[in-house]
Write a structure and sequence with these properties.
By secondary structure, this protein is mostly beta strands. The chain contains one helix and eight strands; from the N terminus they run H-E-E-E-E-E-E-E-E. The chain has one helix spanning 57-63; strands at residues 65-70, 73-80, 87-92, 95-101, 112-116, 124-131, 134-141, 153-159.
Amino acid sequence: MTVSLLGCQPKTDGEPAASEDVTTVDNHAEHDHEGHDHESHNDMDVHEGHDHEGHDHSEHASNSTPFSCEPTATIGLYYHTDATPQIAHLLIDGIEYDLTAVSGSDALTDKTIYTSDIGLDDTHGIIWQVDGDNATLLNKTLNSDVPIDEEEVIFDCHKS
């Protein structure tokens, strides 16, 4: 490959004339796209801090309990009971959130509380507070000790 820098460097009168042979360089011609499917990357399901080995989302979707929520939303709920601490998986708008049970959930009200630092936006985590067939999804203020009863309610839900 020959590249001419003609016009890129000053020429003095004593220098011989630069070669007029100019080779056009087509960098894309040497770029091989065979065997490289850009679309294959689009189906990757990635959650930060979430290990997917041996983890089947379809199992959660088929075994989940639907909750009807206000304002309008449906949340699928699936519990992992084989590990400590207990994990709740919430399926919201096709995205699964893994929440961990808070030790000593609210014994006074029989509410079970699950939390995650990953939320519906980049600035909040989420809290899933369950009381029988009713549940509340709340924002969780990150890096703060805001009491749950002062957190913003996202959805009020009832088991469907």
